[in-house]
Design goal:
mainly alpha, single chain, 8 helices, globular, Rna Polymerase Sigma Factor, Chain: A, Arc Repressor Mutant, subunit A
């Protein structure tokens, strides 16, 4: 059973969210979604019906994203002339500052840890689906996720201090 256009259209919001989490640029994310859908339409004959459509589409998007990164490494980074300058004063709301610190902490993670956090924490994929997207065993995924979460907690100073032997008594 091949997916009909309705099934692909239903996945667009999920694809857009994943693309935006990868790129942090709305226009570039929309371009990546379009490339992904075009590739999926051209490769529908390769989709295996026992595989979830979303996981298959996310794998296509991830591969396209990696190709784009490799291309930029060779060809250089393009800068938009319409780039908006940062506000002259930082936002004062604590939530915005905390969100920025979380996003910065995610950016500092290794690519393997960042992928796992984005797929599971942001895009709400199951462990099995995320492992399939990354082509790794589920145990490896769970281990990476555990280390990624620990690194995030450490980076955000959210670790609980460990009790010393004297405090336990």
């Amino acid at each position: 059973m091949n997916p009909d256009s309705g099934m692909l259209i239903a996945e667009i919001p999920h694809l857009r969210r994943y693309a935006r989490s990868l790129l942090r640029d709305v226009d570039a994310a929309d371009d990546l979604v379009q490339l992904c859908l075009e590739r999926a339409m051209n490769k529908l004959h390769l989709w295996q019906t026992d595989r979830k459509l979303r996981a298959w589409l996310f794998a296509i998007m991830r591969n396209l994203h990696i190709d784009q990164i490799r291309h930029r490494a060779v060809g250089g980074v393009q800068v938009s002339l319409d780039a908006v300058a940062e506000p002259s004063q930082p936002a004062r709301q604590e939530d915005i500052l905390f969100t920025k610190s979380v996003l910065d902490a995610i950016d500092r993670l290794s690519p393997e840890h960042r992928e796992v956090i984005l797929l599971i924490g942001v895009n709400e994929l199951s462990y099995a689906d995320a492992a399939e997207v990354l082509s790794i065993p589920i145990g490896t995924l769970m281990s990476r996720l555990n280390r990624a979460r620990a690194n995030l907690r450490r980076s955000l100073n959210m670790e609980k201090p460990r009790a010393t032997l004297r405090e336990v008594k």
